[in-house]
Fold this sequence. Notes:
The complex is a heterodimer. Chain A has helices at 2-19, 25-43, 49-57, 60-79, 82-93, 97-125, 160-196; strands spanning 130-135, 138-143, 153-154. A three-stranded antiparallel β-sheet of chain A has the order 2-1-3. By secondary structure, chain A is mainly alpha-helical. In chain A, helix 1 runs antiparallel to helix 2, helix 4 (60-79) runs antiparallel to helix 5 (82-93) and helix 5 packs antiparallel against helix 6 (97-125). The longest helix of chain A has 37 residues, at 160-196. Chain B is of the alpha+beta class. Chain B has one domain (29-111): Arc Repressor Mutant, subunit A (Orthogonal Bundle). Chain B has a three-stranded antiparallel β-sheet. Chain B is globular. The chains are: A mainly alpha, B alpha+beta. Chain A binds chain B through residues 30-31, 33-38, 40-42, 53, 56-58, 62-63, 66-67, 70, 74, 191-198, and chain B through 14-15, 17-19, 21-22, 35-37, 48-54, 56-58, 60-61, 64, 78-82.
Amino acid sequence: MADEREREIETYVRRLTGALQPLPQEERVAVASEIRSHLADCAARGEGALGRALDGMGVPELLARSYVEEYRLAGALDRGSPLRLLAVVLGLTARGLAGFFGGLGVLALYLTGASFLLVAGAKLVEPANVGMWIAPNFFSFAILDSPPPAEAHELLGYWIVPLSALLGSACLIGGTRLLHLIGRRILKRQGQRLAAAV
Amino acid sequence: MYYISVMDMNSWQSQLRKGAAELVVLATLAKGEAYGLQILDLANRAGEVVSDGALYPLLTRLEKAGKIAARWDTEQGPNPRKYYRLTPEGAAMLTEMRELWGCFRQMVDILV
């Protein structure tokens, strides 16, 4: 009977450890040891106690996911790499509507920022086809693949370079700030979700 | 219809636990150092607030946030145990949470 309980514990811990692979070795071992110790203590309380503890723990892969998600998100927030953080946030926000649209907003800001920077750079290479043109029934702030209509009047000249660079940078900084805000919010909610996962 | 109603109550109960679990765990550790199973027993002595599977990630999060500190004891008993204790930062947070909880409870008591 004791052997059977030990086998149950080891099976649970092995599945948990396997699902904790993304965590650093030290952290993985610490989590597995603590859960093993908890289950062994429960098993020592007598008939049925281990079963109740295993039920309370839930599926090992789900338990592991709560550690892994938090580790990835906290790591991405600490390391400050926007692309990494964006990938983690988009991966996690697929489960929440507000976060999902927040993630899309960040993506939109990054794309807009990159477009402005591209305009700034392109003006230096192809000055005739980059600018802000205005004419009756025509407005364009872009890189054109053909010359603008003859009646169109270009408004910015080379001022488009610093202006686009400024707007592009603002979009990228804004996107990154929004991303960190969403990341911290998810981390906080993640904690609350874990606390409520009875 | 009955099924939906039961689901709603479960969801509501889960939301209540959401708010209470962190406070309950910190308050439990305010009584002294304890390991996971002790915390679970103390936290759930009046009814289930935290489950086995919710407790450990919560402890890890609180530890990483500096609200609690931990040490391993490998000498007592057959299993190594990780003991947790409240840090000054955690104690300050607990004080604040208790005040907010008290105000919230009073407010709800008046209304319901």
